[in-house]
Amino acid sequence: MADDWRPALGFTDRLTVIQSITSAYRNASPSASFTEAQSHAKRYESEAYSKAASKGEYDQLWQQAIDEVEAQHSVAPVIDSPHYSPDQGEEQYPEGTTTVGKYQHCRHHADGLLSTIYRTKNDDGLLLALKVTTPHLMGPPHDSKRELRLLKEAASSHVIPLLEAFDLPGGQLILVFPYMQSNFDELLHQDVLTPLQVRSHLRDLFTSLAHVHSLGIIHRDVKPSNILLKSPAGPAYLADFGIAWKDGDAGSEPKTRKITDVGTTCYRPPELLFGSKDYNTTLDMWAAGCVVAEAVDINHRQVFDAGPLGSELALIQSIFKTLGTPDSSVWPESARLPDWGKFEFHKYPAKPWEEILKGASSHSRDLVSQLICYESSSRLTALQVWFGLFVIN
């Protein structure tokens, strides 16, 4: 049957295609907004998905869309290596670069959900990353003006340095950072990090979390790709404060009515999945535990799986199948969660951490077990980890 190939094409595969077409459109037409480019990309991908009779034809159709975009705008795309190193010599400035404020020859590097990243150099030759945002087009919890305020307040040795910020006509806000060569997620899955480097980067993560938590800031999106590195040897920096929260900040929600649609699915804690709106910094500690688990797992697998569509129900099932289905004796705070008790779940037994994290050291498993636990108040704080109560091996 003609449609037999479609079920095997997961949501992540389609999203990757959309991102590829979006990037090609932005490269071909640097003046186009991210929203405009993504809108075109979704249309092209949807047409390919509906018209194709096979996976091969689908690939041909979306590749043809990229070719047509390039031909239409008559500009050769800029192809960036995601692992560009400053040590590779002077950067060239081909066609396809653009100007962002006072910065010329800016090359498109990546697209975020509501931002676009460009790479350029300053007058001293330092590589910079320019995060182009449009605050008035953002909806909660995204707020680049709040991100600017919190980055200034949180400045420290392991929080991504904000070098400057400026506005452009049309309501754009530009955040300027030193360009970081890699992120923790990339290097983990390329298996290029030594165990010593992994420990160092995790310590840097907890150092940054201890600092921002001491200021009352919840990051709300801790994950390996938000840990940026100058090189495999480090240092590591916690980045992307676009959905961060602080009590009393003008752009943050009320303390007891926080937004629950935050974070990246596989790193969300169970209290969030059951509707907690008064969560605190322990949300970040669950996510940090997931990062540690992924780092020390011999295959660097995510400890929980939300399925190809990023389903919260799939994530809940994955957590329950791993940690065991909780009851009030295991998870007392569940009784206070708005959405707890609305569903009846299969009673899964808890797996031992020796089975969950095969090949990891006992110290690593011990640390993860005291970060990834149902009762949020029982999770270690970043300061406790930072003080070395547990050794990351």
From TrEMBL:
Protein's UniProt keywords contain Cell inner membrane: no
GO biological process: cell division; G1/S transition of mitotic cell cycle; regulation of DNA-templated transcription; regulation of G2/M transition of mitotic cell cycle; signal transduction
The protein's Enzyme Commission number: 2.7.11.22
Recorded GO CC terms: cyclin-dependent protein kinase holoenzyme complex; cytoplasm; nucleus
Top EC class for this record: transferase
PANTHER family on file: CELL DIVISION PROTEIN KINASE, SERINE_THREONINE-PROTEIN KINASE CSK1
Protein name (database record): cyclin-dependent kinase
Species whose genome carries this gene: Talaromyces proteolyticus
